[in-house]
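All the exercises in this workshop are built on plain-text protein records. Sequence and backbone structure share a record, each on its own labelled line. The question running through the whole workshop is how a given chain folds. The record below serves as our worked example for the rest of this section.
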Amino acid sequence: MDITIHSTFLPHNDPKASLAFYRDTLGFEVRNDVGYEGMRWITVGPADKPGTSIVLHPPFADPGVTEDERRTIAEMMAKGTYAMILLATPDLDGVFERLQASDAEVVQEPTEQPYGVRDCAFRDPAGNMIRIQESR
């Protein structure tokens, strides 16, 4: 069986800030930027991995989301508990220095974890938790 991860979704509440973060800070390429009824869906990904993308989406685009759910989503995004992604790099220290020099909110400096990985954590402009592991 041949199955790959094509896209994953992360919410955003400020498309300009998210675009700047993923493009300028992380160095991802912009693959698509679609606006509709005042909302934007921005697809980004690593240039050397054209088949893998992150879609930054407006969290309230689904018309089935109730007002109570909107409030809960907004609260969870603000706390950084709504969405998360795990990335990997062979140069964790270099990536961490770049993130630390940006406006990214550092949650954890590079640390050897007891479960055998070295990683760091930060939040993107929407509050999403981003963990980056050192690939070996």
